[in-house]
Each structure stands twice: as C-alpha cells, then as structure tokens.
Design a protein that fits this description.
This protein has 393 residues and is mostly helical. The protein has a domain at 6-93 and 159-243 and 345-349. It has 15 helices and nine strands. β6 and β7 form a beta hairpin.
C-alpha cells in the first residue's frame, strides 16, 4: 500500500489573491457575488494523514467516497454551509475564454502586450489555461466587467479549482494533491465525530470552516496514516452524523437535489444525489446508473477526456433537473437505514475494505446521537491510541 499523499496548500497564491488591488466598484461586485469569502477560508491547518486516508477512498467514476457502509460525498448543501458561498443561482462562467478572436480575455491580454493573438496562444497558453500574471493585468487595466471576470477566474482557480484535484490524487500512482482541501477536512469533521478534534470555535452566520482556523498542520507519518486507514475500515453507518445542519438540508438548499452535470470551464463532472440519500434523511436505495460517456480518451499528459453528449449549461437551473426525494426513496426513521438489496449491490460494485477481517483494528466510535462533549473526549482518546501505537512500533 502507498504512503500518505503530499498536500499542496499554496499559501503564497492565496496571499497574492488578498493583495490584488480592486477598484471600489469591482470589490463591491465581488462581495455581492458571495465568493469573496473564499479569500479567508484557507487558514485551517491540514491533516496529511486524515485527508490521505479519505482521498484514497474517492472514486472518480461516481464522485463519492466508498466506505464500508456505502457511498457518501460532499453535496452542494455541504459547500454552502462549510464555505459560506452561494451554490444556487446563475452559473459562474467566463464567456469568451477560449475564443480565437479579440472578444475573449486572451484577445484583451494580447492587446496589453501589443502582439497578435496568434502569437500569444501557442507560446503562453499551450496547455489551455491563462497565466495569473496576465489575468492580474486585466484586473488592473481592464474595464469594470473584464476586471471582475479576470479576478473571479483567479479567485476560483486558486481556491476551488486547483490543478491537481482529488480525482487525480485518488489514483494509486499519485503522490500529491491540491484543491479545496479545507472544504474536505471540515466536511470530515462535520460527518465523522470520531475524527473531530477539540478547539473548534463556531460563530453564528459564519462559514463552518472558520471554526478550525486555529488548527496546526499535522504532517504525515506512516503509523498515524495506517491507524486512520484501520479506523475507516471499522466505520459503520450509525457512526456517521448524517444530518449535521438539521433535518432538511434540502429546505435551505434545494439545488442540492439537482441531478446532472456541474461545470468549471472545460471540466464537467456528474452530480447524483440519489447515491447519497442518507445525507438528506432518506433511506439509501440502489441508485440510478451513472451516465455513460460517448467519448473517452487519454491525452499525452495522462489526463482523461470524457464527453457525455450533454451540455451542462442547459440542465443547470432547470426545474426538471430537481428530483423530488419521494420519487427516489422514503423518509428514514433511523438515519443509517438502507433499502433491501443495497448492501448486496454495493459489495458487488465496490471494494469497501482495505484490510482483511483478520488484520482490522476496532475502535469505539462516536455515533451520530452522542453529545459533543463525548465526541471531544473520544477523539482525544483516539489520538492517544495513535501515539501509543507509534511508540510501540
């Protein structure tokens, strides 16, 4: 088995975002978008071992974590509560980014440098992206509309959509990951009391990720990483806090029930809430089949290209893409319930355990109904197990 995964926090990039000067008009529009708070969400100290143990259970085909009790994932209502950013409304999209004429951002950048667009694209954008330094010039020198577009592209690119995502890091040969790792770590704390450390300070009307801003960085070590692996193998459905934000998360975030595709520039990923019904308070049934791409290819740099034959912009925001829960399942009386045949089906399509039964360790877990004080005490006890095991080894 591989070791823990190196985490790339990119603090310098986040500092640079905060240092970019914005006019009053552009700054007001950034705040109105609700995305400005992303500049403050990256102060949490990451836990290399905990995140690595979860990342290797991520399945890029389903966009879910495959656990012993079934699938679980970061849903849109999780993003809204943890990061405090809007997840509904019109899509965030930079029109004209890839246009081969002067109407796109590339065309404006070419004019700043006094060269033809045909000279700029091959030399500076051979991998399809835009340089942050060039986008910063648009922020400073462009009109209000272009300045806003360029700044939001920098902001999203350095926080939510970094180059090396969990999708790539979950591969066996991967050694590092970047991306919105504070979101993943705070999500783990919300759903899995077993791993929640003490010292969190929650503030009303503030993103939940800020509660863990004072956590120190926990660097990777082989003993702790293996213990987290064993602990995930030991998890059962009743150990999960399935509804951390209240009984009806879809009430405050209806778009979390959206079924379709989510897009960022040329990256398109399927989103299927029917695979995670317990996160809405419903019994988990066998989900609908995943969409099958009509075109699959691998580029020379190892990246996959999938074409699902649908235009995501046409499904996002459509009332027909919001599936009522009653059509998929029924309300759960016990939050960890699953329907007939689900676990049999799941065992056939997944590998929920990393270790054989004879090699698994067992821990007393915090269940979803236990008090926070109990969760805190047991999480400290759990960390003591790590330390003792390391010393004995």
């Amino acid at each position: 088995m591989r070791s823990w995964i190196k985490l790339y926090e990119r603090p310098k990039a986040v500092r640079e975002i905060r240092e970019i000067w914005l006019s009053e008009a552009v700054a007001a529009r950034v705040e109105a978008s609700g995305l400005g708070i992303l500049r403050e969400c990256f102060t949490i100290g990451l836990d290399d071992n905990l995140l690595s143990a979860f990342i290797e259970r991520w399945h890029p085909d389903t966009n879910t974590f495959h656990m012993p009790f079934g699938e679980i994932s970061i849903m849109l209502h999780d993003v809204q509560h943890i990061l405090g950013i809007p997840v509904s409304g019109e899509r965030v999209h930079v029109d004209g980014l890839a246009e081969a004429d002067d109407s796109g951002l590339r065309g404006k950048i070419a004019r700043f440098y006094g060269v033809y667009l045909s000279d700029v694209v091959p030399s500076r954008y051979k991998n399809g992206g835009l340089l942050t330094s060039d986008l910063r010039n648009v922020v400073y020198l462009g009109n209000e509309h272009d300045s806003l577009r360029a700044y939001l592209l920098i902001l999203l690119g350095h926080t939510l959509f970094m180059d090396k995502s969990v999708r790539i890091a979950s591969r066996r040969d991967s050694t590092g990951v970047s991306g919105c790792l504070p979101l993943l770590q705070a999500w783990i704390y919300e759903y899995f009391p077993r791993f929640q450390p003490g010292g969190g300070f929650f503030f009303e009307d503030r993103p939940l990720v800020e509660a863990w801003a004072s956590l120190p960085r926990a660097k990777g070590d082989s003993h702790t990483f293996q213990m987290y692996r064993h602990s995930l193998d030991d998890l059962r459905s009743e150990h999960v806090r399935w509804l951390p934000y209240g009984n009806r998360p879809q009430g405050a975030c209806r778009v979390s029930l959206y079924s379709g595709f989510i897009r960022h520039l040329d990256i398109v990923e399927p989103y299927q809430p029917d695979r995670c019904m317990r996160q809405f308070g419903y019994i988990q049934a066998i989900p609908l089949p995943m969409p099958i791409p009509i075109v699959e290819s691998r580029a020379a740099n190892g990246n996959y290209r999938l074409d699902f034959g649908q235009e995501p912009d046409k499904t996002w925001g459509s009332e027909n893409s919001i599936t009522p829960l009653r059509k998929l399942s029924r309300k759960a009386y016990m939050l960890f319930e699953y329907g007939d045949g689900y676990m049999t089906w799941y065992a056939e399509i997944s590998h929920p355990y990393l270790y054989p039964p004879s090699h698994r360790l067992h821990f007393r877990s915090v269940e979803f109904h236990e008090e926070p004080e109990v969760a805190l005490a047991l999480s400290r006890k759990f960390k003591n197990v790590f330390q003792q095991t390391s010393e004995e080894a």
